[in-house]
Amino acid sequence: MKRRFSLILLMSVVGSVTVFPQVQWHDPLQASFPVVEGRGWTTEQVGAYTRLPQRFATEVHPAVWNLSRQSAGLTVGFNTNAPDITVRYVVSDRLSMAHMPATSVSGLDLYATDADGRIRWCAPLYTFSDTVTYRYHITYEKCRSDHGYDFTLSLPLYNEVSWLSIGVDSTAVFAFRPASQERPIVIYGTSIVQGACASRPGMAWPSILARELQHPVVNLGFSGNGLLAPAVFNAMAELPARLFIIDCMPNMTKGTHLASIFRRALDGVHTLRAHSSAPILLVEHSGYTGDATSATSRQQWQSANLQLRRAYDALLAEGVTGLYYLTHDAIGFTLDDMVEGIHPSDLGMRRQADAVERAISAILYETPSNSPERGETLPLHPSNSPEGESLKSLLDSPPSGELEGVTQQRDPYDWRARHEAVLKQNAAAPPDVVLIGNSITHYWAGLPTGRLVRGADSWEDLWRGHTVSNLGFGWDRIENALWRIRHGELDGYEAAHVFLLMGTNNLDVNTDAEIARGIAELVRSVRVRQPKAQIHVCGILPRADRFDRWPRANAAIQAALAAMKDAADVYYLDLSPAVLNADGTFRPELFLDGLHPNAEGYRLIARRIKACVKL
After folding, report:
1. For 528-567, b where at least 16 C-beta lie within 10 A, e where not — what string?
2. Confidence bin at 8 (pLDDT 50/70/90)
3. Which of 63, 212, 439, 548 could staple 474 via S-S, CB 3.0–4.6 A?
4. Is the pLDDT of residue 399 over 60?
5. pLDDT tens across 347-361, in order?
6. The whole model's pTM is what?
7. Contacts of 76 (CB under 8 A, 6+ apart)
């Protein structure tokens, strides 16, 4: 009897045990493709979280080489819908410093991007020991439950990561995001560029730039060793940069370093320009917050900036193009912006990031509504140079777009993967015709191939004899197309025709006036990158569920285009006659769902384009 009772008790205990899901661990360095972002030489650094490849060990100064082993600016991208994320890793050096906490020297930062491209910071629970552990509990909002968020994990600023693994529930979705193929912004500088004294990796000013501009950023900040070194310039010249930023003055304020600024700045710019036409931004010393009570420190940064400005003027006199200059006053540090009077706090990092971002916005035409006022960035070219005039016009009368460029993940396909496929496709077969659109364009036909193809015959007939890129992305709004344009989809080739068919997905979230301003901003962004192309702005197609709305939006778009100062080779193309009856009523038989054309609908749209545009 006693034995029977024990057996019943044992069975009840076993039956009450909760089965917890297993944690599956993922090592970024074991992925089948490069995952780590921020490494300029990605294919050479597949086995380590480092900033310079091994072949530079004997080329750069030993201190630079040792600092390059630290993971400042490196990130790992992945997608998951797991409610709990754990990151375990090992670092090789001290966990903290006197003026920097463990959370920045050796810690992580995790940011999430939702389905509409909005960025969210993830609060951690962490323990620092032989193995550092960061734990995150995520509540998912504004995303598809089967997709979750796109995450970006920022690595330590002042430590070398020897091993790292990301753990999630084995039942959750998990996939690493490939490192971007976009040309990076390359920043060379001092401890301030490396990240001192941000409170955590995401608050270093290059990290802020990477997060907000969403361009890859290569952080070549070397604490105490940003010395305009020829070996570092030689290394940088290998990179296919979108922009070079040189911010070395804080390490060049004394003795032989001060005396070498002029010559080294000239030689460094010459080295870059011999290999690259990318813009170069020279950044002055931002000063010290204690210099009001120290004439010596004030004289130091002023002397360094005087020599840099001398070099800048000499380079302009030589005729060097694509050269820009950011001043101490434009950065504008206040008494509250530094930790110990030398290195920025989070507040100072934000201030420097904002100043540099304003300059980048003007140089790259990223967000012209946030362009600097004249005087914040000094004359960036001689007034008679084409680049100077172009920038001057941006600064004098920046467009008033309201829609920022953001990513999205509202559809079942992988939006970022399609963007990378577009970059690869354009590089392999430079197009002479480009179609920028949403799902209506995406699922027509052409390359890169979409998961659905609904009008292959009409596509082939319309574009026969042309090399065409389909830049249609399902569920895209105007702000998503802006992001794609600003991240390389129109770079590196000359198109004869660019077609814009955007706006239908904005009808539910924007006013007609906002949509019109967004389309005008798209046109400006296309024109800067494709100055020789004819731009055809296609009106929003009729749709059954918004039949009273699309004509008003199109009227606003036409008015906005008519008001543009430079509308040469910009044409409004009304496609609605292709899908309406003669009396203006809707033809549902040409659509699958009242919105997306079927094969016959695409055939009639193609016929309308052929009748209106001389290809």
Report:
1. bbbeebbbbbbbbbbbeebeebbbebbebbbebbeeeeeb
2. very low
3. 439
4. no
5. 999 999 999 999 998
6. 0.87
7. 28, 35, 36, 37, 152, 153, 155, 164, 166, 176
